[in-house]
Amino acid sequence: MSTTPVEDSMRSKITAALNPTTLEIHNDSASHSHHKAMQGSLSKETHFRLVITSSAFQSKMQPARHRMVYALLKEELDRAGGIHALQLKTKTPEEEERQVAREKAEKGQDIDTKVEKV
């Protein structure tokens, strides 16, 4: 029996439906277990941050992308003791490539400037 059934279910559903090139699932539940809303909850899987890169998000704005993920995780969100908070970062592969290039440029890596030697 898995110790992370909610995470396992999320990973399975997102992978099957969105075929992501990047899928990060961060369980932040321990950081929120002291909150009043969590008192009495036996679940250790209530607060998640997801980073999903998928071509299924192509030509969709953020709200539509988030609705896609919410629809996939409806059961986990609706279940008593299920997901209480879900933070999403959704990108297309092209958006992820631009972000990586921007981060490299900020660090001074792979800059395409030509330097002439005298």
Describe the structure.
This protein has helices at 5-18, 29-32, 62-72, 74-78, 93-107, and strands at 22-27, 47-53, 85-91. Mean pLDDT is 84; it is low at 34-39 and 113-118. The chain is built from five helices and three strands. It has a single domain (5-107), classed as BolA-like (GMP Synthetase, Chain A, domain 3), CATH 3.30.300. It has a three-stranded mixed beta sheet with strand order 1-2-3. Helices cover 42% and strands 17% of the residues. It is globular. The longest helix is centred in the C-terminal third of the chain and has 15 residues, at 93-107. It is of the alpha+beta class.
Tell me the fraction of residues in β-strands, as a range: 15-25%
Quantity of strands, as a count: 3
In terms of quaternary structure, what is this? single chain
Tell me the radius of gyration: 19 Å
* Mean pLDDT metric: 84
- Helical stretch tally: 5
Low-confidence stretches: 34-39, 113-118
**CATH domain fold name:** GMP Synthetase, Chain A, domain 3
How much helix is in the residues? 40-55%
Structural class: alpha+beta
Q: Determine the N-to-C terminus distance.
A: 68 Å
Give the CA-based shape. globular
Number of domains: 1
Supply the CATH class.
Answer: Alpha Beta
Largest sheet: 3 strands, mixed
Task: Provide key terms for this protein.
single chain, 118 residues, alpha+beta, GMP Synthetase, Chain A, domain 3, three-stranded mixed β-sheet, 3 strands, globular, disordered C terminus
Summarize this structure briefly:
The chain is of the alpha+beta class.
